[in-house]
Design brief:
Layout: E1 2-7, H1 15-23, E2 28-31, E3 40-44, E4 47-51, E5 64-67, E6 72-73, H2 75-87, E7 96-99, E8 103-104, H3 107-119, H4 131-139, H5 152-174, H6 181-195, E9 199-200, H7 202-211, E10 216-219, H8 244-248, E11 259-265, E12 268-270, H9 282-291, E13 304-306, E14 308-309, H10 310-320, E15 324-328, E16 338-347, E17 350-352, H11 359-364, E18 366-373, H12 390-403, E19 406-411, E20 419-421
Parallel strand pairs: 1-10, 1-11, 2-5, 2-10, 5-7, 6-8, 7-9, 11-15, 14-16, 15-19
Antiparallel strand pairs: 3-4, 12-13, 16-17, 16-18, 19-20
Bound molecules: 6-O-phosphoryl inosine monophosphate and magnesium ion.
Magnesium ion (MG) binds next to loops.
C-alpha cells in the first residue's frame, strides 16, 4: 500500500509525529517536496528529534528513507542532520538515499531570499533558507542538481554560468559583493564526495519497490495552503505541497497511490504573513500560543493561532483526495469553555462556503462560527475514542461530518503513546 501524507492547513500540523507512527507499517519513507523550511519534531522517550530534510522514518531500524527529486537540499543542513543521527547511534548507511535529480540550495539562494524579502513591499515572511530562489532556478533551467556534484566538468560549467549572471545582480541590484567561484566549487565538491554513497536514481528504486509489493509512505512538508498553486498565493512556499506533488516529486505514477491521509490540528496555526480568517485576537492568541507551545521548529518564530477553519480543511480534503484524517494537538483545547469551528465566511452580506481565491475577499471575510461545548482537562489521559470526554467526541464527529472524511487518529500529546487510533 502506498500512502501519501499531507498537511491540510498552513504547515506545522504535526506531520512529523504521524509520519513517525505510520513509518512502522511501511518499508520506505520518502520526502517529495520542500526543503529545510520544514521542521518535523518527533519525541521518542525523553529525546526530541527535529528533522528538516531527512524523513523521520530514519529513526526506525530497517526502513529505507529517500529524499525525492522534488526536494531542494541545503547540503550543509543535510550534512549536519546525518552527523547528528550518527552521534545518536542511528545507523543509516545502507538505508538512506538521495535522488540524483534533487536540486541544491546554493549560498546565493539564501542571500537572495533574504535580500528580496527586505526589498519587497508585501513581505512573505519566508524562512530565509533560500527555498524560493532555488525552485526559481529549477524552473528557470539553471539549477544545480545532486548528480552534477559527481561530475566536476558539468558542475564547474553550471556554477560559472550561474555566478556570471548572479554576481551582476548582487552587485547592481543589491549592492552585495557577490560570490567567489573557487570557494563554492571546492565546498560543494566536498559535499558531493560525502553524499556519493547515497545518491541514486530513487525513481527506479521506488518503482521496483512498488513492483515488489513493498509499502511506501510519501511525506509532504508544509501544508495545502502553502502550496504554490492552491495556497494563499503569494504567501505560500515554492513547491507542490498537495498530494499531486507526491508523484512529480518522486517518480511514482498516480495510479500507484492507494490512499491519502490528511493531517490537521484541532485548531489552526500559520507562520509568516498572509490572510488567516479565523485568527484569534491578540490576548487569546497569546494564551493559545503558550498553551500549545506554538513556536516554529525551523525559525523559532511565534505562530499565529486561530479556530479550526472547516472551509479550508474541506477544500483540502477535495484537493488532496483525503479519506482519512489525523487530528493533532486535541489536548491543547482541553479546559476551554466554548470552542468554535468556522463553517463558512461572510463578506458583504454574502455567505461563502467555498474557499475564495480573491485575495481581498479572503483577507476581509468574517468567519461564520458554529459553537461547541468545551471539555475539562483530561488528566488521566484517555487511550481510546470511548474514553474521551463526550464533548471532545462530539467535536471530532462534527469535524468528520463537516469535512467528509474519517478521523482515524487523534493526538493528545507529543509522545508516541499519547495517540488514539480509531
Ligand atoms: P512544516 O513542514 C510552517 C512558510 C513560511 C512562509 C512561507 C514561505 O514544518 O509544516 P519559504 O521559506 O518556504 O519560502 O516561506 O511558508 N513555511 C512554513 N510554515 N511550516 C512549514 O513547514 C513551513 N515551510 C514554509 O513561514 O510564510
Ligand atoms: Mg514547521
Amino acid at each position: 500500500m502506498n500512502i501519501v501524507l499531507v498537511g491540510m492547513q498552513w504547515g506545522d500540523e504535526g506531520k512529523g509525529k504521524v509520519i513517525d507512527i505510520l513509518s512502522q507499517k511501511v518499508d520506505y519513507v520518502v520526502r517529495y517536496q520542500g526543503g529545510n523550511n520544514a521542521g518535523h519534531t518527533v519525541v521518542v522517550g525523553a529525546k526530541e528529534y527535529v528533522f528538516h530534510l531527512i524523513p523521520s522514518g530514519i529513526l526506525h531500524a530497517g526502513k529505507i528513507c529517500c529524499i525525492g527529486n522534488g526536494v531542494v537540499i541545503d547540503p550543509e543542513v543535510l550534512k549536519s542532520e546525518l552527523n547528528s543521527l550518527r552521534k545518536n547511534g542511528i545507523d543509516f548507511d545502507k538505508r538512506f538515499k538521495i535522488s540524483t535529480l534533487a536540486h541544491l540550495i546554493m549560498p546565493y539562494h539564501k542571500n537572495l531570499d533574504q535580500l528580496r524579502e527586505t526589498k519587497r513591499m508585501n513581505k512573505i515572511g519566508t524562512t530565509g533558507r533560500g527555498i524560493g530562489p532555488c525552485y526559481a532556478d529549477k524552473i528557470n533551467r539553471c539549477g544545480i542538481r545532486m548528480v552534477d556534484l559527481l561530475n566536476r566538468r558539468v558542475f564547474s560549467d553550471k556554477l560559472k554560468d550561474n555566478l556570471k549572471e548572479k554576481n551582476e545582480i548582487f552587485k547592481k541590484v543589491y549592492r552585495h559583493p557577490g560570490f567567489s567561484f573557487q570557494q563554492i566549487y571546492r565546498q560543494y565538491l566536498n559535499y558531493g564526495k560525502l553524499f556519493e554513497p547515497y545518491i541514486c536514481n530513487t525513481a527506479v528504486l521506488l518503482n521496483k519497490a512498488c513492483n515488489d509489493k513493498s509499502d511506501i509512505l510519501l511525506e509532504g512538508a508544509q501544508g495545502t495552503f502553502l502550496d504554490i498553486d492552491f495556497g494563499t498565493y503569494p504567501f505560500v512556499t515554492s513547491s507542490s505541497a498537495t498530494s499531486g506533488g507526491a508523484c512529480t516529486g518522486t517518480g511514482i505514477p498516480p495510479v500507484k497511490i492507494d490512499k491519502v491521509v490528511g493531517v490537521c490540528k484541532a485548531y489552526t496555526t500559520r507562520v509568516g504573513e498572509g490572510p488567516f480568517p479565523t485568527e484569534f485576537t491578540e490576548g487569546f492568541g497569546k494564551f493559545m500560543r503558550d498553551k500549545g507551545n506554538e513556536f516554529g521548529a525551523t525559525t523559532g518564530r511565534p505562530r499565529r493561532c486561530g479556530w479550526f477553519d472547516a472551509v479550508i480543511a474541506r477544500e483540502s480534503v477535495m484537493l488532496n483526495g483525503i479519506t482519512e484524517l489525523a487530528i493533532m494537538k486535541m489536548d491543547v483545547l482541553d479546559g476551554i469553555d466554548k470552542i468554535k469551528i468556522c463553517v463558512a465566511y461572510k463578506y458583504k452580506n454574502k455567505i461563502i462556503k467555498e474557499f475564495p481565491h480573491d485575495f481581498e475577499l479572503l483577507s476581509k471575510a468574517a468567519p461564520v462560527y458554529k459553537e461547541m461545548a468545551g471539555w475539562p482537562n483530561q488528566a488521566n489521559k484517555p487511550r481510546s475514542f470511548k474514553e474521551l470526554h463526550p464533548n471532545a467526541r462530539a467535536y471530532l464527529l462534527e469535524l468528520q461530518n463537516l469535512l467528509g472524511a474519517k478521523v482515524s487518529m487523534v493526538s493528545i500529546g507529543s509522545a508516541r503513546k499519547a495517540t488514539i487510533f480509531i
